[in-house]
Amino acid sequence: MNNKFHIITFGCQMNVYDSEVLKGILSQKGYSATSKPEDANLIIVNTCSVREHAEVRAIGRLNELSRHKLENPEVKLAVIGCMAQRLGERFLKEVPTLDLVLGTEELFKLPDYLEKKGKSPTVALSFSELQKIDSLPQRKNKFSSFVAISRGCENFCSYCIVPYVRGSEKNRKLSEIIKEVQCLTEYGCKEVALIGQNVNSYKDNGCDFAELLKEVSKTDIQRIRFMTSHPKDLSLKLIEAMSELEKVCEHLHLPLQSGSDKILEKMNRKYNSSDYLRLMDSVRGKVDNLSLTTDLIVGFPGEKEEDFQKTLEMVQRIEFDSAFMFKYSPREGTTAFLLKDDVPNEVKLERLQMLIELQKKIAQKKNKSLIGKTEEVLIDGKSKRDKSSWKGKGRSNKTVIIPKGEKDENLLGEIVKIKIADTDSFTLFGEIIKKR
Ligand code: SF4
User: Which of 94, 240, 307, 308 has CB 3.0 to 4.6 Å from 260, enough for a Cys bridge?
Assistant: First the structure.
């Protein structure tokens, strides 16, 4: 048996992390990763259910990968993650060649299911408890790593499938998180991004998220990020921790979703536009050079032109550094699915385009104002467009490209100070002025 696996990941940073954890578990069991599905005898697709488009792509990919199984019957095909959790047995109708359908917590037991000689295919979906994991995740980016602090969500935003496929919020123990971060530093990691569906509501034995940040700051890690934050749980204590803790980057991802109070209520977001603006003033007043990013949905059921205009007004007023913008996608099982999806697709697309155009202009203007200023960058690779340039992330979470000087030594994994020389809507270009 060749014991090689190939894994494809769709979706959010939590899925990326889950795939990294699974790679660690499989390696411990004697498997090795391959980038070519044709070389693997285990092919895994980690799926996302947040938008219909991601699900359609995953099914297409799985059916295409089925040919490896037809060519070699020893190949096992596994689907894991949110879509596996959502569809369960129904997945076998979409992709009849599947051997394993493992939900959002069962996926970590994949090697055990492979060893079991029971009936095939296997469908396992339990997600009530966090799995205890002993192996270290296998990270793609050695210098900047995701560390999950919680899994699941119980906010039930009306459009969101996550609480149904990942279950209620389960927090990891503070001691486990600290151990993982410290261990990462020993392997050369410089930055961690603490992730969870709503990191702001983290709790372990009386320790909240602000206290967790303080504890992580005491490790040898050099930079700390976190996402995603829910506005309703962004406390003053957390804002103060962000301003006081030097290692915490000046970046906040705070999904607004809509500028209309009527739509926010229908979305069950539990804040209104005034609450959001107050929060903004508070964070911007405390954290210098804050980079603010967000998520926005257009075309939610009942969104009239005036509601959409309110979103545009909020975006104009707040001036986000960047935004993930989507048109509403109805998800079966959510409460919004019961509402009439009454905004025609062409109107959704038109609104999305307008929003993207506006955000692009704002980002361009904001980035231009940074020319001549300095930024601290963690270099994590070469630029895709120009292999002679270094690429990294600033504390603001913006991508930075640094032309490689003739005498530059290997800067991979270094934190350098740069002077910003040029910008576009998504990227900063700079020259190194100091190495740390
Ligand atoms: S906070 Fe809302 S949008 Fe985010 S995962 Fe939970 S239910 Fe979904």
Answer: 307
